[in-house]
Structure formats: structure tokens, C-alpha cells
Amino acid sequence: MAVHLFDVDYTLLRRSSSWYFLQEALKRGVIGFRQIRQLPLDWLRYKTGRARQDFIEIAVKRLAGIDRRVLEELARACFEGRARANLYREGVRLIGGIRRRGEAVFLASSSLRTLLDPLERFLAVDGTIASALEFSGGKTTGRLDGKALFGPNKLEAVREWLEQRAADPEDLCFYSDSYTDLPLLEFSGRPVAVNPDRFLLREARRRRWQILRWRETLGAGGSAPYSV
Questions:
Q1: Residue 46 lies in a domain
Q2: In a domain, 61, yes or no
Q3: What CA–CA distance (Å, rounded) separates 78 from 16?
Q4: CA-CA distance, 30 to 192, in Å (whole number)?
Q5: Quick one: DSSP state of residue 148?
Q6: What is the pLDDT confidence band of residue 112, given thresholds at 50, 70 and 90?
Q7: Residue 217 lies in a domain
Q8: Mean pLDDT for the chain overall
Q9: Residues in CB range of 22: below 8 A, 6 or more apart
Q10: Checking DSSP bridges between strand 3-6 and strand 172-176, what pairing results, if any?
Q11: Number of structural domains in the chain
Q12: Which residues are within 8 A (CB) of 166 and not within 5 positions of it... i.e. 6 or more apart?
């Protein structure tokens, strides 16, 4: 049976989950502009194909000292007030159709698991593979619990996950927008490029991978893809 794995940022969401989270965190004064002054440069490097492999670890350092409950409430408010409306309607419908067929759906993202928990619940998917924050005494330490699941690290995490499930990579259908996911797309039996960046678009055309273009978002009051 096929297993469907969805990237999140710029694939299911119009922008990145961290973008919506930072907007909410700044609004509430949980973080300040000084803590994120490096982010525009990191974004530019990413968009021009020169992303640093350690940019997530560097960004997480700026989140040190936040109470877990505050972070979880921020993630919930961020999703309800910002991210949900910016989910691609076509992606939500696709996930609903896959689940109605009885096939497994998981999220696979370099984003932080805490930020994706509300999305996982909304879509009622089977689980999430994502980067995880380290906590001590109920507060963020400014470090990750394990590796940032970016680029080759995401592939390594998914490979281990498949081995635990005794699943065949040929049964894996992976959806992504980004050139940074090329290792996992190449590994998957069915790679799908969704709104691909220019680097991935070139590779997808060359390799004759399926290419999807999603444009319409849920907007305010968007509903989940199916009843649970």
C-alpha cells in the first residue's frame, strides 16, 4: 500500500510555518526583532540555492528560554489565526482523498514539530517527521533534540522510519516544492514536485517527475479535508 509523505513549507502552506510563527511571536512580544535580524539573509541564501546546512540550528538558538506551554499556545494561535487560511486547498483535498482510500499520510518537514502539531491535528494525518526542540525544566534550551531534518538529514530520518515500518521506498510518494528535498525525492518511488522552485523544476522536467501547481488557499474559515 502506498505511503504519502508531504513536505509542509511552500508545499502545503503558501509560505513557511516559521514565517507565520514569527509573525505571531513578534506580535505577542515573545521574541524581538533583534533575535531574528539574520533571517532575511538566511532566506535569501535559501532562495538562491546557497542555503546553509546549519541555518535551523542557528535560528533555534534565538528561541532559548521559552516556556513549552507558551510555545504550544503560540503554535496553536499561529495556525488558527494565520497558517490555516494559507493552506493550499488542492493539497487539503488531495490528502482527504488519499485518506478516504485508506492509504497512509504523513508530514515530513525540517520545521519544528511543535509548530506542526496543530496542522497534524487539522489534517488528521497519521503522523509527522520533523525537527524537534530540546527542552529542559519545561523551557527551550536553544538546541535541537537530534538533527535538523534538512536536506540529506531528512532523507536519513525517512529511511530509518521506513525501516521501522518494514516499508518499501518504492511505495513512498513524496510531495515537495524544494531543491533541498532532492535526496528524498530521488529516494522515493513516486516523487512529485509541487509548486517547485526553479532548481527543482529543472530537475523534475529532466527526470519527467509529476509536477503539480497549487494556487488557491483555504482562506478564512477553511475546513479540514474530511471528518474524523
A1: yes
A2: yes
A3: 12
A4: 37
A5: -
A6: very high
A7: no
A8: 89
A9: 31, 36, 39
A10: parallel
A11: 1
A12: none
Structural domain range at position 208: 3-212
Pairing mode of beta strands 133-136, 172-176: unpaired
Separation of alpha carbons 126 and 136, rounded Å = 28
Using an 8 Å Cβ cutoff, are 127 and 139 in contact? no
Q: Tell whether 184 is covered by a domain.
A: yes
Question: Rounded CA gap, 183 and 43, in Å?
Answer: 21
Q: What is the pTM of this model?
A: 0.88
Residue the block writes with cell 496553536: 76
172-210 confidence digits (pLDDT tens): 999 999 999 999 999 999 999 999 999 999 999 999 999
Beta bridge partners of 88: 217
Report whether pLDDT(126) > 50.
yes
Tell me how far the alpha carbon of residue 55 is from its chain's centroid. 15
**145 alpha-carbon distance from chain centroid:** 17
Q: How many angstroms separate the CA atoms of 153 and 167, rounded?
A: 19
pLDDT digits over 44-103, tens only?
A: 565 666 666 676 888 888 888 999 999 999 999 999 999 999 999 999 999 999 999 999
* DSSP character at residue 10: T
Q: Which three cell numbers stand for residue 121?
A: 491535528
The domain that contains 11 carries what CATH number? 3.40.50.1000
Q: Where are the alpha helices (DSSP H) in 16-175?
A: 17-28, 39-47, 55-61, 68-78, 89-100, 113-123, 152-165
